[in-house]
Design a protein that fits this description.
mainly alpha; single chain; about 90 residues; about 75% helix; PET117; about 0% strand; transit peptide
Length: about 90
């Protein structure tokens, strides 16, 4: 066997081995990433839910504070205020 053919055979074997190792590593990496996908998705959804809950709680506190301030300025009661001469609430005047 000539030197050129030995070099070609060695290079072919090295290339095939390198390609095999690269493809195997790539597939394993992709599998690991696919396994992590649902886990990361669940974490993102939980974080989004937590942020939304915090925003809702903040808005609720602000609304309660505004209600308290407005109630202090103008107390709420169950009394119905009617216009003058409108005793029956029908809106017709005799």
């Amino acid at each position: 066997m000539s030197t050129a053919s030995k070099i070609t055979l060695g290079a072919s074997i090295a290339f095939a081995t390198g390609a095999f190792v690269f493809i195997n590593y790539s597939q394993n990496s992709e599998r690991a990433a696919l396994r992590q996908g649902p886990i990361k998705d669940a974490e993102r959804q939980q974080a989004r839910k937590t942020k939304k809950q915090q925003a809702n709680e903040l808005e609720h506190r602000e609304q309660e504070e505004m209600k308290r301030k407005f109630a202090a300025l103008q107390p709420l009661s169950s009394e119905i205020i009617r216009g003058e001469g409108d005793e029956q609430g029908g809106g017709k005047r005799s």
